[in-house]
Every structure is written in structure tokens, then in C-alpha cells.
Amino acid sequence: MIHPDYDSPGSLKTFLEEKGMAMQKKFGQNFLINRQARVKLIDALDINSSSFVWEVGPGLGAMTEEILQRDAHVTVFEIDRGFAACVSNFFSDYEKQGKFALVPGDVLKTWKEEAEKKIPDRFFGNLPYNIAATIIADMIEAEVRFEKAVVTVQKEVAQRMCAKPGDKDYSSFSVLCAWAYDVKPLIDLGGGNFWPRPNVDSRAVIMTKKEVFPRCKSPEHFQKILRSLFSSRRKTVKNNLTAFYNDGNRAETILDAAGIDPQIRAEKLSLEQLLHLSDVSYSNIIEDHE
């Protein structure tokens, strides 16, 4: 099977029609038809023959081909059965060489089993808008990190990933990303770079693994307290922690020990302050159980 011209909407449309396939909106399918942008994204991934890459949502394999041409190993996760069959056919020679593997189905349900076999050093994807934040957060919370990741997401998601304390986009997701990675914007991609053209703008970001991690006594407790602190953004940290402990006095005691103003809101707290607060809180709980 010969793949279509990845730069041509007409060629892509004809290929799909001839195969009796159609784009499925529920999967957030859009092909990046700007070749220069594709090359820039893979350049940023910084791969070579010793690299192992996970790619989410390969579609018809435009980015997969770019990765394979650089002699890296790639495992793709594809939920669409038609696309999965196509990329399996397109890259069958690479599969025989042990350079290509396909994991069919919903990546949110399949990635953990793959991680048990091997965690690659690279992660890549033009991530479907409806799962982008979820999959990134799920992997960080499971402490599965990659040396480098390059992901293209809806611009608003990228802004949350890069947000700093005090920014309107700063959230628990921002903190999770900053906890595990240094995150930097790479390139903005308007709708015209894709086919079909989406109604939103996209942004690619580079995520570089932080050397020191997790920097707290209990990653599990840190995640729990983080969710609690940002659960009601209009409430103060004292109010949210009171609900977390079901004890207002304990909340105030821990905040005082951590040196944090009880009347501040969570979106004003830095990663360092949140990690310190988590450690103070965790120590307090451990003392209670001794």
C-alpha cells in the first residue's frame, strides 16, 4: 500500500474515499499538512538510532515516517481501526526490522501495560484535544516520565502547561507539568496547517525531564493535596485544606508551619511552596499515626 501525499488535502481525501474511510470528529482527527512544521517538531524531539519513541495518534503516519527516517524505534498508539491498519501496512518493513510497533485501541487504556514492558526516552504526539491534558497528567501522576516529549495540543492547554503562579491559566495541571518537566513553547500552528481545518489554534511544546524528582516525601500525598488546593479556586488555601483534613485547626497549624498565608489562594503558590506544604502536611499525618 502506497501512502498518500501528506502535504496535500486532496490526496488525503482521495485516499480515505478510496479506502472507504472517513475522519472521525470524536477522535479529534486532523492531519498536519505543513511539512516544514512536521520537520521542526521531529527536530525538537532530538532522536537518533538509539532513541525509542512513543507516538500517540499517528493517523496515516506522516510523523511516524519522519521518525523512522531518522532510524529511531517507534511504538504508535492508534484508536482508529482504519488508520491502525494503514500504518501497519505502510511500515511493515520497519516492523520486520524491529523498528516499528503498533498498539491498537484507546491509549488511555493501553499505555500502562506498554510502560510495564519499557518506558521509552521520547514521547510525541499531535494529541487529540479531548484527551491531551488527561494523558499528560495521568503519566506524570504515575511517575512515568520521558527524557524529552514534544506534544502539539490546543493552544489553551499549552498555556496551562506553561503557566506560572499568578497567571490566569495557572492550575493544578500547570503544577504537575512543572513538577516533572521544564516546559517551553515551540511553535504555534493555526488551523490552516491542518486538514480538516480545526476551529482552534494549536501550540507545540517541548517537555524536558527534570533531573531532580519528585522532591517531596510522598508523591501520592502531594498529588492529593494539590487536587484539594485547586478544587475550589475562589476559596483560600485554608478553606480548601480545612475540607481536605476535615479540621480547620489542623489546616491552620500546617499552613503556619509551612510559612504560608492561610488567606492566599492556591494559584498564587509556587511549585516549591506547594512541595514544602505537602511535606509538612505528610509529616503531620505520619506523626498522628505513630
UniProtKB/TrEMBL annotation:
Location relative to the cell: Cytoplasm
Source taxon at top rank: Bacteria
Binding positions (S-adenosyl-L-methionine): N30, L32, G57, E78, D106, N126
Known catalytic reactions: adenosine(1518)/adenosine(1519) in 16S rRNA + 4 S-adenosyl-L-methionine = N(6)-dimethyladenosine(1518)/N(6)-dimethyladenosine(1519) in 16S rRNA + 4 S-adenosyl-L-homocysteine + 4 H(+)
Domain Ribosomal RNA adenine methylase transferase N-terminal span(s) in chain numbering: 37-211
Pfam families linked to this entry: RrnaAD
Signal sequence interval, chain numbering: none
UniProt keyword annotations, A-Z: Cytoplasm, Methyltransferase, RNA-binding, rRNA processing, S-adenosyl-L-methionine, Transferase
EC number: 2.1.1.182
Enzyme category, top tier: transferase
GO function terms (MF aspect): 16S rRNA (adenine(1518)-N(6)/adenine(1519)-N(6))-dimethyltransferase activity; RNA binding
GO cellular component: cytosol
Protein family per UniProt: Belongs to the class I-like SAM-binding methyltransferase superfamily. rRNA adenine N(6)-methyltransferase family. RsmA subfamily.
Role according to the record: Specifically dimethylates two adjacent adenosines (A1518 and A1519) in the loop of a conserved hairpin near the 3'-end of 16S rRNA in the 30S particle. May play a critical role in biogenesis of 30S subunits.
PANTHER family in alphabetical order: DIMETHYLADENOSINE TRANSFERASE, DIMETHYLADENOSINE TRANSFERASE-RELATED
Protein's recorded name: Ribosomal RNA small subunit methyltransferase A
Origin species: Candidatus Treponema excrementipullorum
Gene giving rise to this polypeptide: rsmA
